[in-house]
Design goal:
Blueprint (H helix, E strand, L loop, with lengths): L3 E7 L5 H12 L4 E4 L7 E8 L6 H4 L4 E9 L1 E3 L8 E4 L7 H8 L4 E5 L8 E2 L2 E2 H6 L9 E14 L2 E8 L5 H11 L4 E11 L2 E2 L17 H5 L5 E3 L2 H8 L4 E2 L10 E5 L5 E7 L3 E7 L1
Parallel strand pairs: 3-12, 14-16
Antiparallel strand pairs: 1-3, 2-3, 4-11, 4-12, 5-6, 7-10, 8-9, 10-11, 12-13, 15-18, 16-17, 17-18
Length: 285
C-alpha cells in the first residue's frame, strides 16, 4: 500500500473525484481522497491523499486558501460561473480600480455567505448541486467565513482579475457576485485557480501527466507543514498504536490543537489532541 500525498495541478474540466480515480488507477491504490474540492471549471492546487493518508483529510481541510480569479462584469449566470446560462445582464460592464478597492474593503474580515445551489454542500445527505440539476432550489442558511485579503491584479474591459485569501468554506463565485452587487452591477466567474492551501503552494504541484511514484510525499514530511510533530520513545509509541493517553510532557510548551505523533523512526502513528493535562488520541493511523 502506498501511503502519502500528491500535489496536483488540477486541469479545467476534471472533477476532484476524476483526479482521484485517475491517480488510483495510475498507482494501483484503492483508497484515494482529496482535501478541498475544486469544481470542474476551476484549476490549481489539489491535495490528493493515498492509503492511510486519507484518514487525515478532516484535519487538513480547515486551513485557509488562496485563489486567482477572473470575473466577467455585466452578466449573471445561474451557476455563478461561465458554465451556466446567463439569467441577467447589466448596462454597467466596466468598473474602475477605485470602485473595486473601495468595495472590497467592505468584505474583509468575518462576513456571511449563502452557499450557492451548485455547491457540494450536503443537505440531508444530498449535495446541493444534485438538487440544482433537477431544477430544485432550497433555502440555504448563511455561513460565517473570513476574508483575509482581496487584491486587484488587472482590469481588461469587463474582465477583472483579483487575488483572494480566504478561510475554509468560502465560495469565490458568491464573493464575486456580492462584490459586483456592491459596485452596482452583476458578474460571474470566468476563471478560478487555487494557488495555495495553508503553507502549500501551487508552485510545488505537478500535472497528472507528469506524475511519478517518487512524487508521493510521506505522511510525516507532508503533515509537518500543517501541524506539530511529536516523536515518541518505544514505550509511548506502543501506547499511541493502541490509542492510549499520552503524558503532556511529550509536547513542547505552547503547543495546542492537533499534533501528529510518530515513533523514533518518524513512522506516523496517530493524530492526537492536546488536552488540559494529557494528549488524547483522536485518529489512529
Amino acid at each position: 500500500m502506498k501511503d502519502g500525498f500528491l500535489l496536483i495541478n488540477k486541469p479545467v474540466g476534471w472533477t476532484s473525484r476524476d483526479v482521484c480515480n485517475k491517480i488510483g488507477h495510475l498507482f494501483g491504490v484503492k483508497k484515494v481522497g482529496h482535501c478541498g474540492t475544486l469544481d470542474p471549471f476551476a484549476s490549481g492546487l489539489l491535495i490528493v491523499c493515498l492509503g492511510k493518508a486519507t484518514k487525515l483529510v478532516p484535519y487538513l481541510e480547515n486551513y485557509d486558501k488562496k485563489y486567482e480569479a477572473v470575473m466577467k462584469v455585466g452578466e449573471k449566470t445561474n451557476t455563478g460561473d461561465y458554465t451556466g446560462e446567463i439569467i441577467a445582464t447589466s448596462d454597467k460592464i466596466v468598473i474602475s480600480r477605485q470602485e473595486f478597492e473601495k468595495s472590497s474593503e467592505n468584505f474583509l474580515g468575518d462576513i456571511e455567505q449563502v452557499p450557492p445551489m451548485v455547491s457540494a454542500l450536503k443537505v440531508n445527505g444530498q449535495p446541493l448541486y444534485e438538487l440544482a440539476r433537477k431544477g430544485i432550489e432550497i433555502e440555504r442558511k448563511a455561513r460565517k467565513v473570513h476574508i483575509f485579503s482581496l487584491d486587484l491584479v488587472n482590469i481588461d474591459g469587463s474582465d477583472v482579475t483579483f487575488l483572494a485569501h480566504v478561510s475554509k468554506g468560502t465560495y469565490i463565485r458568491t464573493l464575486a457576485e456580492d462584490l459586483a452587487s456592491e459596485m452596482g452591477t452583476l458578474a460571474h466567474l470566468k476563471k478560478l485557480h487555487r494557488t495555495a492551501i495553508g503553507n502549500v503552494d501551487v508552485s510545488k504541484t505537478k500535472t497528472i501527466e507528469e506524475l511519478e511514484e517518487k512524487d508521493i510525499i510521506g505522511i510525516t514530511e507532508f503533515v509537518s507543514s500543517f501541524m506539530p510533530i511529536i516523536r515518541l520513545d518505544k514505550e509511548d509509541s506502543i501506547k499511541a498504536i493502541h490509542g492510549g493517553k499520552l503524558s503532556k510532557r511529550n509536547a513542547n510548551p505552547g503547543m495546542s490543537g492537533h499534533v501528529l505523533v510518530t515513533d523514533e523512526e518518524d513512522n506516523p502513528l496517530a493524530i492526537y489532541e492536546i488536552a488540559d493535562s494529557y494528549l488524547k488520541c483522536v485518529r489512529g493511523l
